[in-house]
Every structure is written in C-alpha cells, then in structure tokens.
Amino acid sequence: MKRSLILLASIFLIISCNDGKTKKERRILSDSSGNINQLTVVIENELWEGEVGEAIRTNFAAPVDGLPQEEPLFSLSQIPPETFSGFVRNSRIFLKIEDSTPKGMDLFEDEFARPQTGVVLMGDNSEELIDVINEKSDSIVKLLKKTELTEKQRRIRKSLKKDDALSEKFGLKLKFPSAYRYAKEDEHFSWIRKEIPKGSMEILVYEVPINQIENDSSVIANIIEMRDSIGEAQIPGRLKGSYMITEKAYAPYLFETEIDGKFAYETRGTWEVANDFMAGPFVNYAVKDEENNRFVILEGFVFSPSRGKRDNIFELDAILQSAEFE
C-alpha cells in the first residue's frame, strides 16, 4: 500500500511538472534557416524605400570595424509583412517594423523556429520608427550577433579537430574544425591554418608576460609592438626580408571584453607585410591570466585578396571566443 501511494505521488509530480511547462516549450519547432549574418527585415515596401529604410540600412548594414574594404554588419533581405509566413518565418534572425502604437520594442526567442531571435520595433509614424531604430540599434546588433556567433560555434562543433597540443602547451582548449592544420609550432608559439580559395585563414596562439601589455605605455601601442615583433620572428612573407606587421596607416580598434570569464583586450584592424604587397584583416584577443602572470594571445587573420572577408573573420572570431582555460 505504501509503495502504491509513493508511485501515485510520483506520477502526480511528473504530471504537475509537465503542466507547468509553457505551451511554447512543448511546441515542436522547425530548425531555423539562413546564412550566417543574413538578417531578414520585415517592413512595408514604402517604408523600406524611404527614411525608415535608410535608418535601418545605416544602423544594421554599417561597415564592420577592422576590415580593409567596407562590408556590412548584416546582409539585409527585405520582405513585406504579408509574405512573412510559412518557411520564410524560419529565418534565424529577423527584424520586423510595425507602424503601430505604443512606440517601443519587443523581443522574441524561438517564436517560429529554433534557434531564432526576432525583434519587433513599433512606432506611430516614420519619425517615431526612426527614433526607436536609432535608439535601440546598438543593443539589437549585439543581440543578433550573439545569436549568429552561437550558431556558428554550433556548426563548428559538428566537425571538430581532435587536438591536445594547445592544452599541453598553454593550458587552453580551442574548438576549431578539422579543416584546420598546424602550419608551425615551437615551444611558445602555435600557428594553425585553413586553406580557402585564393587565400587562407590563420590562427595564432602564444603568450607574453602581463607587463608587456600593461605598463606605463599605452595598451594599444604595446599590442602593436607585440604583434609586430611576433610577425618579424614567426610570420615571414613571400619575399626575403618581408614579414607581417600591423598596418601603419590606420590605428586598430581597441575594446575590452571577456573570454571564458577572463578579462581581455580585443583588437581589430588590418595587417600588412613589410617589404611586400599583402594585407588583410585581423582580430586579436589578449586574455589576462593573472594566476600565471601572463596574457594568452589568440589571434585570427585572413588573406583573401579581392574577396569579402567578413564571414572569414567571423568564423575565426567564433573559434577564438570558444577558448576555455584549464
């Protein structure tokens, strides 16, 4: 009898838990679709062709920092509201503009597909819509980029390279696809490469003492000096006496961020080759590891002349941000 009561109580508990789930959690959703950094914009044609559309393009198709040629944050694909149905609603990220009140913003997660992030901006007229677009765009871009980064990392995990070298050398795990190969290794430096049509994508991992970056000089000047010294020592160009350096014509962008819960300096800019004609974009994370009195340097750079590089850098970024310290 006692066992029967316990069984009944357990069944009741399970049923209660299931009933507590929202209908949304119980729904079966399709997989979301779309290329990485492809943003579906749901808006009336008339608004898209006017000042509201211009505000959207200014904010969401702005140039990506650190690329040698202008490439947009997102590739925008506009559709009118009446066509936003069926499989079209499976877009992984979408921005919907509604001429309605009250003025504001709504967020949707996994509304029509999974994973999915949707943003609805509302305003009573064009002026209100432009105001809310300009006001909310920075936070929306960060949100959508986070969704895309997570999706890119998910795709990368489908075909990971088995690697222990970075763990043994730096106490670090990095998730990168099996298409990447080690191009050069020594005791304190690793260079990993993926060949692409007419170019390559590169990853560098090394470490420097904390006071090499944080001292009485400016951080960005120290990072540039560090990159250039590594370039001269480790990354030769095609011609004798040539090597990779930070482009001198434009100062890189410097941000503060975190990698695996550790403080990091994020630097984005353009590299070039001293005494040769080669160049491309790079992203560099100097991750502060105070326990070991070091900065671990994670860098990705691309060589792909006459081609877009936004998506290449985004892939490298997704790999570098997957870093886990042991």
Automatic annotation (TrEMBL):
InterPro entries: DUF4837. Pfam families: DUF4837. This is Uncharacterized protein DUF4837.
